[in-house]
Design brief:
Signal peptide: 1-21
Largest sheet: 9 strands, mixed
EC number: 3.2.1.52
Keywords: Glycosidase, Hydrolase, Signal
GO molecular function, one term: beta-N-acetylhexosaminidase activity
Distance between the termini: 91 Å
Bound molecules: acetamide, zinc ion
Oligomer: single chain
Domain PA14: 620-754
Structural class: alpha/beta
CATH architecture of the largest domain: Alpha-Beta Barrel
Length: 758
């Protein structure tokens, strides 16, 4: 066969285009959550504007809109199923929330037995589309059969501590739907702000939605400065100046609430409003003080004072609020809160005491239970069912109510609730509180977690309704910060909620899929957390020359650095290969997303250091270190000096003392005896503060009140003994470990045989 040069070149460029497009299209393996069964075949289906779409049920009209909006093209409704290119069909007999997607060159068929199954199929289509816009709107030919393991795949958002606009909430709902979440738990009221319009009580939002800056706001402002992070800035579009005072906040009108509820419904998401009571109610109490116990308003030891459940008028106030709330939220379940109630006022209040007498209630706990049961009965009369935080498990509710299990230290609550026939939503703070710092191990921690606590019978297990992540926003003032705290770890929640545990056995592949999903989030302008940069320590030591080296498991990130003490910007040097240094240098660097936004600031100092000589200690040293244990109050290691010594003893390990739960400090003293000359790497993990000194010089500074945080440092040591002093304090049940890190980066506890004292 003879072929012209032009057609030869054309053939090459077409085949290059096809292979490039197919490379971009090989997204079916990256879908999160992973489908139950997926069979790919050759060929593509290409969406085009004006394509015909058939639905066999008018309730699928919002799904038509959803698909068309996701594709950003028009799809024309057809009344002819056989000739339509796209068919969305409601059929009988499929699993709840599941779908079947069948795609060939000419036709796309999506079937389900409920609307949420159709939406789940659309989310799969969205993830099958190529990430690169220029690759068009083609998806591979596939047969997918898919259904969720858990029926409750939830996300909670606290809009009281900081307010999120309707648009911001809608963006979150859109992302939830992309990852097949189907329940939005909207924490609408709390001590710090009331966010939902209640027409009968206008002051709730006229005044209760606004505040002067509080301590949490001030902490955010400080973090903005100290962390060099604009995501902590209080949003100025949510502030106004009234009579010279800046006030901050916002609320949703009832129409806006309904808009959000409809928007969520189109995306297969039920919205569960939470009006937290009888505690966490200060924003309302400040506007309507009669609902509190007389003269007893404000903060107790730990929590704000609750409403007065002794007064009938307070109960009527609550019920009136719920009557309006029921009109805005069609879903059967609503959330009463019921957590963290400071009951001390009820003991002092004549109305509460009277109620206890008339109802035969012996304790304030029984009074809370009475209130919660009253509300449950009221909800049921109104066709609604109660969800409460797990504290309400003590309140003698019926099996129609549900608990959100958040107190990870109290698994008993799950046992009790499920034994009483109550459905349970799993959201323990240990794994699923997304206000807690998102550490590098968090994805794996969630992926590996057992959703079902141990020791439940099969009937109890069947009452575990699903999984939810909770976003409390005390220190999350902006949408950017919220996205940062939520992504990518919500993908792990999506995976454990959708997939049966037996399918979760390949974390490394999951992690890779997450990295690919982050490219999709780039296109959606999501401010996700970039995986940790690795390969360096906070303090790096060299004898002749050192090498600044940085890795990231996400290859597409840009790392930019400076060596002159300034913060790196998008103009700073781009890291491509290791940088050699021959003198003391401090590197500042951060990772940038493709849209130019950046993640946290890292610093790594490189220090030229001669090997530190060993001490000439002649005495026969004994194993272990001297420890002085103190009764502590303060917020930094220097406060140990003024603390009361409890006892001294010798310990062979550096570790949190057994049987203690906080308000303590320890100072370890003695020697570290290393076996040979060399550069040693240590890391110090502590909650709260700690400082490690070697040879009277600070090596690791990890001071201050904080959750578990690890700092690392290198030091060049001659073989032999070096003076060691380690100070540590803890406010509430902490963590302390000194690690040794080998050249491969593997960590082990500092060998106890290296620890000596006189
Ligand atoms: C909660 O974290 N107080 C439910
Ligand atoms: Zn009272």
């Amino acid at each position: 066969m003879k072929i012209s040069l032009q057609s030869f070149l054309l053939a090459i460029s077409v085949s290059a285009l096809i292979s490039c497009a197919q490379k971009n299209l090989s997204t079916e393996k990256d879908i999160i959550p992973s489908p139950v069964e997926i069979i790919k075949s050759d060929g593509l289906f290409t969406f085009k504007s004006g394509m015909s779409l058939y639905i066999n049920d008018k309730n699928l009209a919002p799904a038509h809109t959803l698909l068309q909006n996701s594709l950003e093209i028009d799809l024309v409704e057809s009344h002819e199923e056989l000739s339509a290119s796209i068919v969305l069909r409601m059929i009988e007999g499929m699993k709840e929330g599941g779908y079947h997607l069948s795609v060939n060159n000419d036709r796309l068929l999506l079937e389900a037995s409920d609307y949420s199954g159709i939406v789940a199929g659309i989310s799969t289509i969205r993830q099958l589309l190529p990430i690169e816009a220029e690759s068009g709107l083609s998806i591979p030919n596939v047969e997918i059969t898919d259904y969720p393991h858990y029926q409750w795949r939830g996300m909670h958002l606290d809009v009281s501590r900081h307010f999120y606009s309707k648009k911001e909430v809608m963006k979150l709902l859109d992302l939830m739907s992309l990852y097949k979440f189907n329940k939005f738990h909207w924490h609408l009221t709390d001590d710090q702000g009331w966010r939902i319009e209640i027409k009968k009580y206008p002051l709730l939002t006229e005044k209760g939605a606004w505040r002067k800056y509080n301590d949490q706001d001030r902490t955010c402002m400080q973090l903005e400065k100290s962390m060099h992070n604009p995501d902590y800035a209080i949003p100025t579009d949510k502030t106004s100046v009234i009579e010279g005072d800046t006030i901050y906040g916002g609320f949703y009108t009832q129409d806006e609430i309904k808009e959000v509820v409809n928007y969520a419904a189109e995306r297969g998401i039920d919205v569960i409003p939470e009006i937290d009571m009888p505690g966490h109610f200060l924003a309302a109490i400040q506007q309507y003080p009669d609902i509190a116990c007389d003269g007893l308003i404000g903060w107790g030891q730990v929590f704000s004072s609750p409403i007065c459940v002794g007064k009938d008028s307070t109960l009527e106030f609550c019920k009136n609020i719920w009557r309006e709330v029921f009109q805005m939220f069609p879903y059967e379940y609503v959330h009463l809160g019921g957590d963290e109630v400071d009951k001390t006022n009820w003991n002092k209040c004549k109305d509460c005491q009277k109620r206890m007498k008339s109802e035969g209630l012996a304790t304030p706990e029984a009074l809370q239970a009475w209130f919660v049961r009253e509300m449950e009965a009221f909800f049921l009369q109104n066709g609604k069912r109660l969800v409460g935080w797990d504290e309400v498990v003590e309140d003698g509710l019926s099996d129609k109510s549900v608990i959100s299990w958040w107190r990870s230290w109290c698994t008993d609550a799950v046992h009790k609730a499920t034994a009483a026939g109550m459905k349970t939503i799993i959201c323990p703070n240990s794994h699923l509180y997304f206000d807690y710092e998102q550490k590098s191990d968090f994805l794996k921690k969630i992926y590996d977690m057992d959703v079902v606590p141990s020791g439940l019978s099969d009937t109890q297990k069947s009452l575990v309704w699903g999984v939810q992540c909770n976003v409390w926003t005390e220190w999350i003032p902006t949408m950017e910060r919220m996205e940062y705290m939520v992504f990518p770890r919500m993908m792990a929640v999506s995976e454990i909620a959708w997939c049966e545990k037996s399918r979760l056995n390949d974390y490394k592949t999951f992690e890779q899929r997450v990295m690919n999903q982050l490219k999709r989030l780039d296109k959606l302008s999501v401010n996700y957390r970039i995986p940790d940069l690795t390969g360096f320590y906070d303090r790096n030591v060299f004898v002749d020359k050192g090498e600044f080296k940085v890795d990231c498991i996400m290859p597409q990130v840009e790392i930019r650095y400076t060596m002159d003490g300034t913060d790196p910007s998008s103009e700073s040097a781009l890291y491509t290969t290791p940088v050699t240094v021959t003198k003391d240098t401090e590197f500042k660097f951060r990772a940038f997303r493709p849209d130019g936004t950046f993640d946290k600031l890292y610093t790594a100092s490189f220090v030229k250091e001669a090997v530190r000589p060993a001490l000439k200690v002649t005495e026969n040293l004994k194993p272990g270190l001297n420890v002085a244990l103190y009764d502590f109050s303060g917020n930094k290691c220097a406060d140990i000096a003024s603390s009361k010594l409890i006892k001294t003893y010798v310990s062979e390990r550096i570790a949190y003392p057994e049987g203690k739960t906080g308000n303590l400090a320890m100072v370890y003293n003695g020697y570290l005896e290393v076996p040979s000359d060399g550069v040693y790497t240590f890391s110090l993990l502590s909650d709260d503060g700690s400082i490690l000194k070697l040879d009277d010089q600070v090596l690791i500074e990890n001071d201050g009140l904080h959750s578990p945080a690890e700092r690392s440092a290198q030091v060049a040591l001659a073989a032999g003994k070096h003076k060691l002093e380690l100070s540590y304090f803890d406010y509430f049940g902490g963590v302390l470990t000194l690690y040794l890190i080998n050249e491969e980066g593997e960590k082990t506890e500092c060998p106890s045989e290296w620890l000596k004292h006189e």
